[in-house]
Amino acid sequence: MTKHLLIVFLIALQVFGATIPVAKPEAVGVSTERLGRIRETMQQHMDAHDIAGAVTLVARKGRLVHLEAHGAMDIEGKRAMEKNAIFRIWSMTKPVAGVAILMLMEDGKVRLNDPVSRFIPEFQSMKVAVMQERAAGAPANSPAPYYTVPAMRAITIQDLLTHVSGLGSGPVSGAEMTKLAKKTTDTLPEVVPLMGSTTLDFQPGSRWGYSALAAFDTLGRVVEVASGMSFDRFLKERLFVPLGMNETSFQPTAEMQSRIVTSYQRASDRMTRLEAKHPMLNLYGREYFSGGGGLYSTIQDYAVFAQMLLDGGQWNGKRLLSPRTVELMSSVFVPDTLPGRAPGRGFGLSVQVISNPIAAGQRVSTGSYGWDGAFGTHFWIDPKEKIVGIMMIQTANSNRQLDRDFESAVMQAIVE
Q1: Which residue has the higher pLDDT, 140 or 214?
Q2: Rounded to the nearest 5°, which phi and psi values hold at 335?
Q3: Quick one: which of 192, 191, 306 has its CA closest to 248?
Q4: Residue 135 class from Cβ within 10 Å (0-12 exposed, 13-18 middle, 19+ buried)?
């Protein structure tokens, strides 16, 4: 990167609220030339109609070495992708909610082994589904019959953080959750207690089953009860303001609305625009602050959040978590041997943890952790190589091989 380009890069970054200091890649052991393969990777997937566009970011040793926009943020409007584009980050909201819980743990207001019913009484005495075989001649797509038994123990905060609660994690609980369809006026205090009446898909702790929304929406309500603040206010005051994440929120401002990336879905090797009325784009009302997937953000804002974790819980002289708490968050609580987990992929407190990269088929270091979003957003933190890698796209049914290709393009650029 020439001196002139570096100056331009620095000036361009001033449009963002939160920034990571910029460095020439070679100053932190990264090859400028090899970083160009990230662009090639994104182009290959755009040519294959996997994605319409993307923004990619790489930081190493606390210095930003790559930030690039690719393709289009709106194909029909012929609008090129912008570095400060706003993305629905979907399940990349979960680690943010996880940090909120860990902050309250440090405050002495929440324990990992606390039963959820301590904060939400409706979660006492939950039932668990026991599946039975379909009757002979029953349609293959008919719901499998089941009966219920009492849960052997209460579900805990740790269960929710690690997806082993059975809440919203399978066909029975998932079907019952759909009956709690949210209205635009619904809030966490209204909806989450109703989840306590649903049937768990398995005995708590017996397996890993991804809870797309219910577990972390419940954690959002726990934050409210334990802190005395609404979930959105807690995140703003305790996380977003200290980190300078001015463009991360549940409800983007009017100015931010103009930068929201158009959502597409990949079908029959072509990109199809999701219309504004599409159900996936209308999951939440204005007052429903989903810890499972409700946030909007920019790649630069999220990079600061990730860098804070990589730096042991502090950012710009402000300490948000202790190093030991970040270490706890990124520890393997759920091994890859528990039913439901894939080889080499353990799970920590709201994040996947790579316990064996070879078994996982991922080109990252042992101990790397992060998570993804439903429309293709992806991030990971590599403590060994001191890397933060983030990719923001907005394509439903996206080709998740792109996650692995992006990781490979980043890791091959490290030369020291």
Answers
A1: 214
A2: -75, 165
A3: 306
A4: exposed
pLDDT digits (tens, 9 = 90+) for 200-252: 999 999 999 999 999 999 999 999 999 999 999 999 999 999 999 999 999 99
Rounded CA separation 348/346 (Å): 7
String of DSSP letters for 72-83:
EEETTTTEE--T
Domains in the chain with CATH codes:
1-86+264-274+297-311+369-416 (3.30.450), 96-232 (3.40.710.10)
For residue 390, the tally of other CB atoms under 10 A from its CB is: 26
Tokens representing 57 are 């970011």
CB–CB of 398/50 below 8 Å?
yes
CA distance 290 to 232: 9
pTM beyond 0.85, yes or no: yes
**Tokens at 81, concatenated:** 């992708």
Please, are residues 115 and 155 in contact by the beta-carbon 8 Å criterion? yes
pLDDT of residue 17: 56
Residues with Cβ within 8 Å of residue 46, at least 6 apart in sequence: 52, 53, 54, 70, 71
- Closest of 168, 157, 286 to residue 219, by C-alpha: 157
234 vs 390: CA distance, rounded Å: 25
Q: What is the mean pLDDT of the chain?
A: 94
